[in-house]
Amino acid sequence: MALNVNVNSDFTIQEVSDVIRSALALDERVAKHKKVRYSYLCGKFETKYKMSSDIFMQKFESGQLEDLDKYFDWYAAKKGLDHWNKKLNILSGISL
User: How confident is the model at residue 5, as a pLDDT?
Assistant: First the structure.
C-alpha cells in the first residue's frame, strides 16, 4: 500500500522524512513499553486464574464467566495488549 504525504514547500523532503522517522520511532518505543506492561498484567491474571488470556476472552465474551470487576480488569488488560500488538505490527511494516 502506498501512502502520499503532502509537504509544505518551506521544508525539504529530507526534513519531513526525518520528522516522520522520529515520530514513528517514538510511537514504536511507546507501543513496546505498553505491550510489556499489558503482557505483565495479563500474565498475572493467567497465573492467578490458571487460564490463558485467549481462553479467558472466549469465555468472557460468550458469557461463561460472571460479570465481576476482576474479570473486567483482565478484559481491559487483554484488549490493551491486543491493541498495542496490532499497533506494533503496523509500525513494523512501515518503511520510508
Answer: 79
Burial of 49 (0-12, 13-18, 19+ CB in 10 A): middle
Rounded Cα distance between 30 and 44, Å, is 21
Distance CA 65, CA 93 (A): 37
pLDDT for 62 beyond 90: yes
pTM here?
0.85
Three-state SS at 13: helix
What lies within 8 Å, CB to CB, of 70 at 6+ separation is 45
Alpha carbon distance 68, 72 (integer Å): 7
